[in-house]
Design goal:
The protein has one domain. 62% of the residues lie in helices and 0% in strands. It contains six helices and no strands.
Length: 120
């Protein structure tokens, strides 16, 4: 079965990335996922797409509190509500953050699609 990535919605694409992380990110580590998303965002914007525009602001609004933190730190705070050290995460913590990251990203894209009138 061949999948045409260009024909996928952003939600479908990121669901595939989450499911087959090792195909897209060497080592399947959190830093790689974050770099991948930043690269995706920059590429999309350079070529006229929305990329992840509004993602950080959406996280702030969803959390219901002002924050000067980058989106990466906000996702960590959602995924690890009991706290995390600003440094190395355990493998279990990284796995949890990656899982929550893709769930939040899907929520963000679904909401953006609804607002823009795109089919879900």
């Amino acid at each position: 079965m061949t999948v045409d990535l260009a024909e996928m919605s952003e939600r479908e694409y990121f669901a595939l990335v989450a499911k087959r992380l090792g195909m897209f990110i060497v080592g399947s580590r959190l830093a790689g996922v974050e770099g991948f998303l930043d690269g995706y965002d920059q590429h999309a914007r350079r070529h006229g797409g929305p990329g992840l525009q509004g993602w950080r602001e959406w996280l702030v609004a969803r959390r219901g509190q002002e924050s000067s933190l980058a989106w990466q730190a906000q996702v960590r705070e959602v995924a690890l509500p009991d706290g995390w050290k600003r440094g190395e995460l355990t493998q279990e913590e990284e796995s949890r953050v990656i899982e929550v990251l893709f769930k939040l990203l899907d929520e963000f894209l679904a909401e953006r699609d609804r607002v823009e009138g795109r089919p879900l």
